Amino acid sequence: MLDTNPIPKRPRVIIVGGGFAGVNAAKSLAELPVEITLIDRRNHHTFQPLLYQVALAVLSPADIAQPIRGILRKQKNARVLMDELVGIDTAAHQVELATGACLDFDYLVLATGATHSYFGKDEWAKFAPGLKTIEDATEIRRRVLLAFELAERQMIEKGWHPQLNFVVIGGGPTGVELAGAICDIAQLYMKRDFRQIDPSRSKVMLIEGSPRVLGAYPAVLSAKAEKELTRLGVLVRTGVHVTDIGPGWVKIGDQQIDSVVTLWAAGVQASPVGKMLGATTGVKLDNRGCVIVNQTLHPPELPNIFVLGDLAHYEENGKRVPGVAQPAMQMGDHIGKIIAADLTSRPRPPFHYFNKGDLATIGRMDAVANISWPFHAKLSGFVAWVTWLVVHIFFLVGFRNRLAVFATWVWTYMTFTRSARLITGDQSLIGWTEYKANLKGKS
């Protein structure tokens, strides 16, 4: 006798975002009887901790990016859509995509990350790009390298060139790494490539509004980082705030500072998906637009909608879990445990963040590391730098990427050459004319 009972429907899980949280969420569901759809505007996952090395011409974009389809190729219950979320209907359990498609879900995982925050001064963005995507990194690389090329051309054509001043705004890990890397590229990697200018005479300024750089790190490591930046030639200014940015200049209070390239590493805000969810459901958001979630990583009102990574505001022991790669990956991994519990009618396990430590490079063969696991240690200098190398190689997605990055690093640090110094796109530099005029008038 034939069994006429319908085959049970497999729960549909839609994951929006192909970053650390989204990819790890998809992987955590690999062995569960669910149908997964991962949606992202881009077709690749980016290893964001190494974006600054693309921006400063150490690595190529392909070294730190991996196609999402390739990552999930062997996962039979997962499919990938290159599209963008534009609407959420929580009553109908549907999402609307930019292409017009509407997809049903039983579980929705929002992991769309964060973007730059210019604190209400969005007009600053064209003068001071931030660093969140591959596109941002290649634009920063274009501007930094173009500044040296234009100075060389100016020297040949006019017999003089303006002093090259670079300004990095924000003294967190990204700002510290950018400032140190600009010094490295100017003093070590480009000085033999130009005939008319001396790149090593370039100046780098790092501006931080709080009393010290790397404010989230222990004070002893913050002090060591500032000391090493100063040794490299970076002028570190703390406790001051930028009041305006324009073509070829930055203002601190009433003081105008000439800047051939200005980079932004001072603030982030949640992706617009947080406000979209807040507007349609009334869930609570914090002042950055992040969705406030409970111990099972969802707003209390929406038990089947999870929010992860930079988009989530999750507090543990009275402190907010930081919006960096570690907690994003752990949140993604935890989604599998939660949905597995639902499928077997067990209580959902609460999420607990396991902080393994923080790492930041300062310059060539120098870093600071606040290690929490497998032992507690505060490291700086060469040992911290080696730790940083090993950790980042380990967490890169894909054997080819690990091998390529390791080979590139070995070649770079042994030969003092960088193979990724390519200028693509527009050959003009915003603010160059104004910058030259300002400095010529002062000479």
Mind explaining what this structure looks like?
It is a single chain. α1 runs parallel beside α8. The chain has helices at 20-28, 51-55, 68-71, 134-158, 173-189, 219-232, 272-281, 325-343, 382-395, 399-415, 432-442, and strands spanning 12-16, 35-40, 44-46, 65-67, 78-82, 85-89, 94-97, 102-104, 107-110, 114-116, 165-169, 203-208, 234-238, 242-246, 249-252, 255-258, 261-264, 268-270, 291-292, 305-307, 312-313, 315-316, 319-320, 357-363, 366-371, 377-381. It contains eleven helices and 26 strands. The protein folds into two domains: 12-41 and 83-116 and 269-343, FAD/NAD(P)-binding domain (3-Layer(bba) Sandwich), CATH 3.50.50; 122-266 and 365-442, FAD/NAD(P)-binding domain (3-Layer(bba) Sandwich), CATH 3.50.50. It has 443 residues and is an alpha/beta fold. The strands form nine sheets. It has a five-stranded parallel β-sheet with strand order 5-2-1-9-20, covered by helices on one side. It has a four-stranded parallel β-sheet with strand order 13-12-11-17. A three-stranded antiparallel β-sheet has the order 6-7-8. It is globular and about 75 Å long.
